[in-house]
UniProtKB/TrEMBL annotation:
SMART domains, per the entry: eIF1a (SM00652)
Protein name, as recorded: Eukaryotic translation initiation factor 4C
GO molecular function: RNA binding; translation initiation factor activity
Keywords: Initiation factor, Protein biosynthesis
Organism: Gregarina niphandrodes
Chain spans, region Disordered: 121-150
Claim: Protein biosynthesis is one of the keywords in the record: yes
Function comment: Seems to be required for maximal rate of protein biosynthesis. Enhances ribosome dissociation into subunits and stabilizes the binding of the initiator Met-tRNA(I) to 40 S ribosomal subunits.
CDD domains: S1_IF1A
PROSITE patterns the record matches: IF1A (PS01262), S1_IF1_TYPE (PS50832)
Record domain S1-like: where: 22-96
Length: 150
């Protein structure tokens, strides 16, 4: 019985993604584009982003970036605006934290955009502190019952 001729499963590409290895050319916005910060991931390649012009837009991750460039809440991205739908846009580029700092120095984006440091490839997997914990506060302190009072 012959073995598989392929190079592995769909996750084989994970190892070669290094965080910010080499410098790349900084892409600036063009007339029909806008800088934005991701507010919320909606699923199915869609997200909600706050653009520099003050509008919240429903954005779609373009096919070339899908499953290759991971976008999270807080990331700074370049959005291509749609001429026929002002409330929607398409994500065409994701900026790394160094590029965001450069854009702030060039005054392309406001200082209000905070830089979110992301972990490199392979780091942080399996740790208990992954930042997605949900905390609840007790609104009614009078409803708390002590076990010894029973």
């Amino acid at each position: 019985m012959a073995g598989k001729a392929g190079k592995g499963g769909k996750n084989r590409r994970r190892g070669k993604n290094d965080a910010f290895g080499d410098k790349r050319e900084l892409i600036l916005k063009e007339p029909c584009q806008e800088y934005a910060q991701v507010l919320k991931m909606l699923g199915n390649g869609r997200l909600e982003a706050q653009c520099v012009d003050g509008a919240k837009r429903l954005c779609h991750i373009r096919g070339k970036m899908r499953k290759k460039v991971w976008i999270n809440a807080g990331d700074v991205v370049l959005v291509s605006l749609r001429e026929y739908q002002d409330e929607k846009g398409d994500i065409i580029h994701k900026y790394n934290p160094d590029e965001v700092r450069t854009l702030k120095q060039m005054r392309e984006i406001p200082e209000a955009f905070r830089v979110v440091e992301t972990i490199g490839a392979g780091e942080g997997y399996g740790s208990d502190d992954d930042g997605d914990d949900i905390g609840f506060e007790n609104q009614d302190d009078q409803d708390v019952i002590d076990i010894e009072d029973l």
